[in-house]
Amino acid sequence: MITSESPDFKPGDIVLSDYFGWQLFTTIPASSAKLVTATDAPVEASLSYLGMPGLTAYFALLKTGDPKEGETVLISAASGGVGQIAGQIARIKGLDPVAVAGSGMVQTAGVPRRRQPPNVG
Hints:
By secondary structure, this protein is an alpha/beta fold. It has helices at about 50-65, 80-90, and strands spanning about 15, 35, 70-75, 95-100, 115. The strands form two sheets. A three-stranded parallel sheet has the order 3-4-5, covered by helices on one side. A two-stranded antiparallel ribbon has the order 1-2. The protein starts with 13 loop residues before the first strand and ends in a 6-residue tail after the last strand.
């Protein structure tokens, strides 16, 4: 934040908003801005496990999928941002995650079993 007319923000604050992408400067409505702090996690976490990838993994796995403890869940694209987090959430929740990726280089944290699809073409 460089400047704000809102009493909720001051110069130097880091904010997150759906009103802008990766750019140096923009003007956004104060109502769209959410303050990002480093109190509980690094600021960068707002772009990872506490941001879109983490929310996508959480809601897709636990709310849409609704798996029960002990069930096996398949995590496709497990080497991507969302898949890595989904695998960790699955393990924390007592599920048996199986990670799938297109490369033998998959090392999803907390997911011991990995499957590599056969080479096609």
